[in-house]
Specification:
The protein is mainly alpha-helical. The protein has helices at 5-20, 31-44, 50-68. It contains three helices and no strands. The protein starts with a helix and ends with a helix.
């Protein structure tokens, strides 16, 4: 799947925003990659807004952390 440069930047910004909300004690190895994958999946399913991508990833954050811990 091919994404526009604008959407790629939006996904990067969403990733950084979500990661900034993770407390240091919950930042586990592989978390950023897993959150990026979540954002990528959301975009592939048509979610293209910054807020929507952040919400999609944030909603999954605790289960991702649990899975990786």
């Amino acid at each position: 799947m091919k994404f526009s440069a604008e959407l790629i930047q939006t996904m990067r910004d969403a990733l950084e925003t979500v990661m900034a909300s993770v407390p240091a004690d919950q930042s586990v190895f592989g978390l950023k990659a897993a959150v990026a994958e979540c954002i990528l999946r959301a975009a592939a399913h048509g979610q293209t807004s910054f807020d929507g991508l952040v919400t999609s990833a944030s909603d999954q954050l605790q289960s991702i952390i649990s899975m990786l811990s």
